[in-house]
Write a structure and sequence with these properties.
This protein has 114 residues and is of the alpha/beta class. It has a single domain, classed as TIM Barrel (Alpha-Beta Barrel). Helices cover 39% and strands 14% of the residues. It has four helices and four strands. The protein has helices spanning 4-7, 36-48, 70-87, 99-108; strands at 17-21, 53-57, 92-95, 112-113. α2 links the parallel β1 and β2 (53-57). The protein is globular and about 40 Å long.
Length: 114
Amino acid sequence: MKTVREMFDFDKKTYIMGILNVTPDSFSDGGSWNNINDAMNHAEEMIKQGADIIDVGGESTRPGYTMISDEEKIQRTAPYIQALKEKFDVPVSIDTYKPIVAEAAIKSGVDIIN
């Protein structure tokens, strides 16, 4: 397994992270990518447009959001992480502050904890 330092040469390039929100109540995209087919199409488009990393978000942080359980966030994000790793050859990150979610994301194949 490559380390982040082996994947990226920070001295020579700036990397672009494409954001893939897979939550139904996202403030930025209104839940547009919360099914696998649409999400994979969107990820493919972001990669074509230059994204070097795909960051998976599974919990809204918009004003007035409702906090979800760790298990729900895992159920939302793990299938997308697995699908991204199977379909594309780009690093995948998980946007989380929850240790249990980060651990599940690692088991699903994520490369970076954001």
